[in-house]
Specification:
The chain is of the alpha/beta class. It contains seven helices and 26 strands. Strand 23 and strand 24 form a beta hairpin. Bound molecules: adenosine monophosphate and magnesium ion (MG). Magnesium ion binds next to loops.
């Protein structure tokens, strides 16, 4: 194994380890945003019966053949049908039924004329009235037909489709109170560091608040996983080993922050070797080259560096696609757009940088990328302001102003079409 892997090598090794989770049945609303694990078959025709698409009059198109402003036709209203009614009265030649949107078509009628295109000659427009029509409609106009969207016994959605709100509506109309989707992974979020205190404590001398536990849990949530937070881990081999073993019992994926570098109290790598396997621990990137990957028993493990921005970027590059893969999503990579660099950026020749920046569109329609603050890996403010990670490739230093750079769009979801 080379001492240091490229981002592509590390990612390929890591994602090869990640498997889609088993399906589960959930309440319909809990399926929103998730991936269907089995075809969803409709129990009824949708629409369930021929019905009106408009408020108007159901009639026989043949009665209005040749109707115009000059030669209007009058029909007698013989029924009044609301949504939810069922009408047995037949519309015969010379008659019409007043009908509301969604109400079932009465027998004999084949067409609906909108109420706005008619005028009442006598009566109140209800049963017994005479109504005037001055246009010849197309037969079938404004009628929604039984089984138009899906027929009983047919799949309304296929396994592998991601369920958005419209799909949830389709599943509701076809009788799916519960739905079979892939499980969301339970992701153990572990923070190492004897300096860490919980966020409700004002840190005493030498201590800092554990922010990574929260930023990581938030990233897990956004990626579609279930974050499971564990207590802060003090920097000892025993405490780190115990935490890894405990997390592996109840979670599908373990991520840690900190303790993967060359510090005297960095115990994640030895703890991983003692409890499972270590596959790699260095990736040619900045921020955060000590990205660490392995397994604890059968549970994939990813050790992120502790500096808050390194943690944030490492999660974006490695952990987010893994979580998406686990819940069955096909699109694992954020969209990348090319943009012109507003200013030159200094960097080390050999490293690939993921620089926090903002892309914006200029008045002439071009995309421009600029830094959005100090790139120190301790500063979350810059990550907060960023809408992209500019990829500054290895082998180039400095990157000149006006050069074209690829930008990973943090503001756009993976399946977006640019
Ligand atoms: P490490 O990777 O453990 O050497 O940590 C690198 C830097 O990140 C140190 O300044 C740590 O204090 C800081 N750090 C580590 N873990 C956290 C955390 N959970 N929340 C905030 N900062 C952290
Ligand atoms: Mg540490």
């Amino acid at each position: 194994m080379p001492d240091i892997l490229s981002v592509e090598q590390a990612k390929a090794q890591w994602l090869a380890l990640i498997e889609r989770r088993a399906p589960e049945e959930v309440e319909l609303l809990d399926a929103c945003g998730r991936v269907l694990a089995a075809d969803a078959v409709s129990d009824i025709d949708v629409a369930p019966f021929d019905n009106s698409a408009m408020d108007g009059f159901a009639l026989r198109a043949s009665d209005l053949r040749g109707a115009s402003d000059q030669t209007p036709v009058a029909l007698e209203v013989i029924a009044h049908i609301a949504a939810g009614d069922w009408c047995e009265t037949e519309v015969v030649a010379g008659t019409a039924a007043r009908i509301m949107t969604g109400a079932p078509m009465p027998p004999g009628a084949d067409t609906v004329v909108k109420v706005e295109e008619t005028s009442v000659l006598s009566g109140d427009g209800g049963v017994g009235s005479q109504v005037r029509f001055s246009r010849a409609p197309q037969p079938g106009e404004n009628v929604r037909h039984r089984g138009e969207e899906v027929k009983a016994g047919e799949a309304v959605l296929r396994a592998g489709e991601r369920l958005g709100p419209a799909a949830i509506g389709l599943l509701a109309s076809t009788g799916h109170a519960r739905v079979c989707v892939y499980r969301r992974p339970r992701v153990a979020v572990l923070s190492t560091g004897s300096e860490l205190v919980d966020i409700d404590t004002v840190p005493p001398a030498g201590k800092i608040r554990n922010s990574n536990n929260y930023s990581l849990a938030a990233q897990v949530l956004e990626a579609g996983g279930i974050p499971v937070a564990f207590p802060n881990i003090t920097d000892t081999l025993e405490a780190t080993k115990a935490a890894l073993l405990e997390a592996a019992v109840s979670c599908d994926l373990i991520i840690t922050s900190g303790g993967v570098s060359v510090g005297d109290f960095d115990y994640v790598k030895p703890a991983l070797e003692a409890t499972g396997q270590l596959f790699f621990c260095k990736v040619n990137m900045r921020p955060g080259n000590p990205q660490t990957m392995g397994m604890v028993g059968s549970v994939p493990f990813f050790g992120l560096p502790g500096n808050p921005t390194s943690t944030f970027v490492g999660f974006e590059i490695f952990v987010r696609p893994a979580i998406r893969k686990m819940w069955g999503e096909k699109h694992l990579e954020r969209p990348v757009t090319r943009a012109r660099l507003a200013t030159a950026i200094q960097k080390k020749q050999v490293r690939r940088y993921f620089t926090r920046g903002r892309v914006r569109r200029t008045d002439d329609g071009a995309l421009v990328a600029e830094l959005c603050g100090d790139q120190s890996s301790a500063l979350l403010t810059t990550a907060h302001r960023a809408n992209c990670l500019m990829i500054l490739p290895e082998g180039v230093a400095p990157v000149p102003a006006d050069s074209e750079v690829d930008c990973i769009r943090l503001d756009i979801e993976e399946n977006a079409c640019l």
